TrEMBL record:
Annotated region described as Disordered, given as residue ranges: 1-47
Comp. bias intervals (Basic and acidic residues): 15-47
Protein name: RNA-binding protein 25-like
Domain of life of the native organism: Eukaryota
This protein's encoding gene: LOC116289459
Length: 71
């Protein structure tokens, strides 16, 4: 027969396992959020670089039609 101590110990262990699972899920969510932020930052950097390159091309060629036409 199970003693009261064994029952309580099992319940406690079960709670601890559940807490550990929650912590792991939260860590994974945090990692995913960080990866998403990093992707967004990289995308913004690429957009900025592309804009700078367009501006450089426009100013390199001084012809009026090139400046008037957006790329």
């Amino acid at each position: 027969m199970n003693s009261v101590f064994q029952i309580h110990r099992r319940k406690r262990e079960k709670r601890e396992r559940e807490k550990e699972r929650k912590r792991e899920k939260e860590k994974e969510k945090q990692k995913e959020r960080e990866r998403e932020r990093k992707r967004e930052r990289e995308l913004e950097n690429v957009k900025k670089e592309a804009k700078i390159e367009r501006q450089k091309r426009l100013f390199r060629d001084k012809s009026p039609k090139c400046i008037a036409m957006p790329i």
